[in-house]
Amino acid sequence: xxxxxxxxxxxxxxxxxxxxxxxxxxxxADFDLVVRYQGGANAGHxxxxxxxxxxxxxxxxxxxxxxxxxxxxxxxxxxxxxLLEELDQxxxxxxxxxxxxxxxxxxxxxxxxHRVLDAAREQAAQDVSGRKIGTTLRGIGPCxxxxxxxxGIRMTDLIDPDRFRDVLRRALAxxxxxxxxxxxxxxxxxxxICEEYLRYADRxxxxxxxxxxxxxxxxGRGKRILFEGAQGSLLDVDLGTYPFVTSSNTSFHGLGxxxxxxxxxxxxVLGITKAYSTRVGEGPFPTELKDATGALLRKVGNEYxxxxxxxxxxxxxxxxxxxxxxxxxxxxxxAITKLDVLDEFEEIQVGTHYSVGGGDVASFPTRxxxxxxxxxxxxxGWRRSITACKRFADLPPEAKEYLQFIAxxxxxxxxxxxxxxxxxxxxxxxxxxxxxxxxxxxxxxxx
Length: 447
Ligand code: GDP
Ligand code: IMO
Ligand code: MG
Hints:
Elements: E1 7-12, H1 20-27, E2 33-36, E3 45-49, E4 52-56, E5 69-72, E6 77-78, H2 80-92, E7 101-104, E8 108-109, H3 112-129, H4 140-148, H5 155-158, H6 161-182, H7 190-204, E9 208-209, H8 211-220, E10 225-232, H9 254-259, E11 266-274, E12 277-279, H10 292-300, E13 313-315, E14 317-318, H11 319-329, E15 333-337, E16 347-356, E17 359-361, E18 373-380, H12 397-410, E19 414-418, E20 426-433
Helix pairs in contact: 3-4, 3-6, 6-7
Bound molecules: guanosine-5'-diphosphate, 6-O-phosphoryl inosine monophosphate and magnesium ion.
Residues 16-17, 43-45, 306 line the site of magnesium ion.
């Protein structure tokens, strides 16, 4: 990234899985701290270095770089079992950076009953209305529900055994009521959970601190902070495709509330988008391709969920959705990932407008049941492998034109292009590729 920004925030601007893990890993070389601020183990962020591939669910994707402080903010819902599994996996791979991890004392803890309730609510939604959300079943929604209902258990409670026993006993009585009476499932026992989680607490206690204070102090000492968003802007609980969303603020706006660090200190917000679109789970996806082209994108892009292994739905890039995410998410610049997945396509389409009820609209609709007909622009493919390209100048003319078209349509510059899974398959654009004009609709126009 260019030096204008001291602290940087990386967010997905589609429905998740944009390649945030890879981009954060690359960028973290230039930062001192890497911070997650929302979501939980529903995230799956992949980093590939040489032959080794890592998937991070809770640990910030900067953990592979030597000596980076990796912090989990108060806005994250933290499943200690998932976190320790991740740390142990890293250790087995010969990477022991556990001492670099910091966890907010205010982060809410995901407990076994959250997972049970996630599954029970999904099942009930499916049975009653045939309309489940298609969650990752990681207990995310139920944990955020408890937080908002002021029934949550935080890290500060977990690491104090007497207090944990007390708050768990009260919470579990209530949760078991719901599990048994509402969903007809087996109640969970108090002792096994208590014993298991107090073991986790012993290992995590030294890592727990006030993250807001840590970030303010480190920034004050001139350290640079990289914030790593999870999920994608269109899964935002307030501004995404509600109700088919996750339960947190996934855009840049989650940063302040999720860390206690002022977003006004963050210089640049980098929006990540694939060169096409994907979505896992239910919900609207206007440019989805349910045909052979969609299947080809899934095959070439290896579009299977990094957390659940579910096949991802695939389609063309949707500039209406992206312009909306750019506008509400205050995006300064773009990183385009998986451009290489389009290598074999003779023709590439991009959604530029929606037709609703016969009339063109440039804005993203509020209601997800709105019948939408996307309108496309067709661009020529390049029909050769670009994974070895190291500079913008190395790319074929059609790939350059595709990127320019995206920058124009988004009215935002492109600062990075990813042309393969590997850390090394990344093109840093210096200078950034600027939009030629305001684009056909403009980033803010009507959206
Ligand atoms: P995240 O959740 O945003 O971090 O993304 P995921 O890790 O869930 O999914 C992105 C997938 O695409 C992972 O398997 C990455 O290894 C892979 N990937 C990232 N960038 C590229 C790229 O430029 N080209 C290709 N072919 N794969 C990529
Ligand atoms: P990363 O960080 C893609 C989706 C789920 C479901 C909806 C709600 O890897 O990009 P939840 O379990 O959060 O209650 O599920 O959100 N979802 C994601 N989709 N990438 C993710 O994370 C996701 N995290 C949640 O598939 O549709
Ligand atoms: Mg992912």
